[in-house]
Amino acid sequence: MSKRFNLVPWLFLTPFLGIFAVFTVWPLMHSLILSMQQTYGPGRTQWVGLHNFKFLLTDPLFWKATGNTVKFALGSLFIQLPVALGLALLLNRTALKGRALFRLVFFAPSLVGLPFVAMLFAPIFEKRTGLLNVILHNLFSAWDPEFAWTQNYIMTALIIAALWMYAGFNMVYFLAALQNVSKDMLEAAEIDGAGPWQRFRHVVIPEIMPIAGFVTLLSLIGSFQLFELSYIMLGDTAGPDNGGLTIVMYLYQTGFQTGDLGYASTIGWVLALMLVSIAFIQRRIFKRHEEN
Question: Of 72, 102, 200, 277, which one has the greatest count of Cβ atoms within 10 A?
Answer without folding.
Answer: 72
